[in-house]
Write the structure tokens for this entry.
Amino acid sequence: MAGLVTTFGAGAMTNSIHEIREADFLFVIGSNTSEAHPIIAMEMKRAVRRGAKLVVADPRSIWMTTIADRHLPLKPGTDVWLLNAMAQVIIAEGLSDENFIAQSTEGYEALAERVANYTPEEAEKITGVAAADIRATARAYATTRKAGIYYTLGITEHTHGTDNVYALSNLVLLTGHLGSRSTGLNPLRGQNNVQGANDAGASPIFFPDYQSVGDPEIQAKYEAAWGCSLSSEPGLNLNQMMKVAGSKIRAFFIMGEDIVMSEPNVAVLEEGLNAMDFVVIQDIFLTETARFADVVLPAACFAEKDGTFTNSERRVQLVRKAVEPPGEARADWRILIDIARASGADWDYQSPADIYAELVHEAPNFAGISHERIDSEGIGLQWPCPTSDHPGTKFLHEGGVLRGKGLFQAVDYKPSVEIADSDYPLVLSTGRTLYHYNAATQTTRSAGLPEKQPEAFVELHRKDAGQRGISDGDLVEVLSRRGSLRCRAQVSRQVRRGCIWMPFHFADSRANLLTVDQGDAVTGTAEYKVCATEVRLLAAAAADDKTLFPGAFWGEPGGATSSAT
Ligand SMILES: Nc1nc2c(c(=O)[nH]1)N[C@H]1C(S)=C(S)[C@@H](COP(=O)(O)OP(=O)(O)OC[C@H]3O[C@@H](n4cnc5c(=O)[nH]c(N)nc54)[C@H](O)[C@@H]3O)O[C@H]1N2
Ligand SMILES: Nc1nc2c(c(=O)[nH]1)N[C@H]1C(S)=C(S)[C@@H](COP(=O)(O)OP(=O)(O)OC[C@H]3O[C@@H](n4cnc5c(=O)[nH]c(N)nc54)[C@H](O)[C@@H]3O)O[C@H]1N2
Ligand SMILES: [Mo]
């Protein structure tokens, strides 16, 4: 979001999901689309079947590479090199859209100068991707009109994540692949309403609708609307908050997050949580983090309440209550209103529609969207939607970049904070699988999913495993400078030599005991995708125990339910 607001003026997918099927070139970078966004991956498959070219830039041989025309198996953290080299090719071979650059962008000269030395031959040395493949990808992207870029955490979860987004924006601005169907720069959103939460101002730097906290006019507008005085200082981001948990911050109100599963370097975070004066958890389940809670407030889940979810393509959709919440569970908004009232505020919202109406009143992009309208039109509305007769917006930047002019941001490659050395020679990357969802709070409580994937594992390349006497299914220890864990080895064709990979879903083997907590300079997003590790054999698997199956080392399947839950 930070990167795209800077370069284009809006922090969301530029185009819509259904446009993918009509694209002629898809560049998928740092996105395990078929496991993390299966519905979007189906649209990509549909495009490929129609004849679209697909290039996947990913250190792992993920399933998407099996239907790709080209796989660019880059070394983790080297994307700026790859992308700058593509920009270099596009400029050097005269493939850029000169009209678009002249009329719709600024900062071109600085970019051209910066990328001049990023030749594909030099890039090959750093990224491990053949120069010919970089050239071919740059040419195909630049010369195909309906060419779109799709990215997720392989781009953003780095200490240089914002630089990666800038480097991608540069390719879009060089070629003018913006403001028309089946093109653009498309970050696929993660959680179901993460887009809506940001839109509503759940961010330390923005009021609703990305209006800056530091802007005196905006501040005055909200002071009048809300009848209170507001700070002009941005708040702390997640990473900054976690660093001062238990010191500068003495209390947490945690709603819908299981931070001891999902935050990096969690051993240190747990010390902070222990030192806190007061911790509240508001969740639909008793989470791992609830072990640190003074109070747990039971919330109703999505099917037990009304409201809206805004999906990845900026589509605001209505959700209607289907079943009653169990026990004492109540809708989040009702709990929050009671807390506000008990604290002396006179909030009198009667429904989520009331709350939504207040939000859109001050937020120009959503002003034309109401619960009533979504209800009557049926399939949701895509913002920007400034008036009640506006149809909503399928793709952004049509007829002009929202920022005014697209901003080229020249960036140089910076290495990841931790690189492999003789003590910790293997680069660990972490992520998710098809069968579990993030902290797995929800997915381990379903009967079928833990059966499909009962326990943690670490993927190793055949040769790295062999060197350590490790075979498929063995019990191993994974160590970093911050901690260690035990899990099964999976000798895999997916990871490249020198790299290992594991999911962060499992409470008994928390990958985040290992990860580094340094964050991106702009956003604070942690470097979940690169840290230095070593793997040791603990116990060979029994002869009849070579494959992963339930309960092998820890008793019952679904290890993510611990003593706390
Ligand atoms: N089944 C399932 N679906 C989910 C989730 C889930 O937990 N389970 N979580 C949701 C959430 S919150 C999110 S944010 C999304 C995330 O969706 P993704 O970002 O697709 O998920 P990750 O597993 O983190 O995959 C990141 C991809 O980036 C690659 N990668 C790692 N390092 C680099 C690098 O340096 N450069 C490049 N180019 N690639 C790299 C990895 O190999 C992997 O293929 O998924 C959402 N969907
Ligand atoms: N190592 C590593 N760590 C990572 C990542 C990675 O790739 N690698 N990815 C990061 C990313 S992208 C993300 S998004 C985070 C996710 O990290 P978290 O947000 O901590 O994980 P989730 O499982 O998505 O947590 C959702 C919580 O919300 C609760 N919940 C569900 N519905 C409701 C509701 O209606 N109301 C309330 N109050 N609670 C509800 C669920 O029970 C669950 O406890 O993890 C991050 N951590
Ligand atoms: Mo996410």
In short: The pocket of MGD (ligand 2) is lined by residues 153, 157, 190-191, 255-259, 261-262, 282-285, 287, 299, 301-302, 332, 430-431, 437-439, 441-442, 504, 511-512, 515, 528 (CB under 6 Å). The domain at 426-555 is CATH 2.40.40.20 (Barwin-like endoglucanases). The chain has 20 helices and 21 strands. The chain has three domains: 2-189+403-407, 236-310+315-382, 426-555.
